[in-house]
Write a structure and sequence with these properties.
With 139 residues, the protein is mainly α. It has 2 domains: 95 residues, Cytochrome C biogenesis protein (Helicase, Ruva Protein, domain 3, Orthogonal Bundle), CATH 1.10.8; 28 residues. α2 crosses α3 and α3 packs across α4. It starts with a helix and ends in a 12-residue tail after the last helix.
Length: 139
Amino acid sequence: MKLNILLCALAFAFFLPAAAMAVQPDEILPDPVLEQRARVISQQLRCLVCQGEDIDESAAGLARDLRLLVRERLVKGDSDAQVIEFVRGRYGDYVLMKPPLAPRTWLLWLTPAAVLLVGFAAVLRMMRPRRKPGAGGAA
């Protein structure tokens, strides 16, 4: 029990700094208002390398490039919506953490449900009692 707690604490201590340091000091804007807007926008954009993280959390090179692009657009005077639309236009709906529900994104929305249904069907099939060979009703 104590070993499990120790391992969890070590894993937490090891991975937490990496997540906290995704945004590098040289990326941070001097204007705190613009920086806060950049952080909010970055949390809405998916890292195309990691796919499960937003670009604000990801340490991938592409995520850094996207963070810099977001900040560059904000400094040029784009609104939050314009920045998101610019990135979306370049990378498609998949770059959004919450893509819109539209015919072109049905695959993104329906794939998790389909995987759950297939998994549920597999579990039901495994739980079904098996017939023994030769134990038919013919006597």
